[in-house]
Amino acid sequence: METKNKIALITGASRGLGKNMALKIAEKGLDVIITYHSKKEEAQEVVAAIQKTGRKAAALQLNAGDVNSFSSFFTELARILQDTFGVNRFDYLVNNAGIGMNVPFKDTTEEQFDLLMNIQFKGVYFLTQKALGFLNDHGGVVNVSSGLARFSSPGYSAYASMKGAIETLTRYQAKELGARGIRVNAVAPGAIATDFAGGVIRDNAQYNANVKAVTALGRVGEPDDIGGVVAFLCTEDARWVTAQRIEASGGMNL
Question: Which of 92, 159, 172, 207 is catalytic?
Answer without folding.
Answer: 159
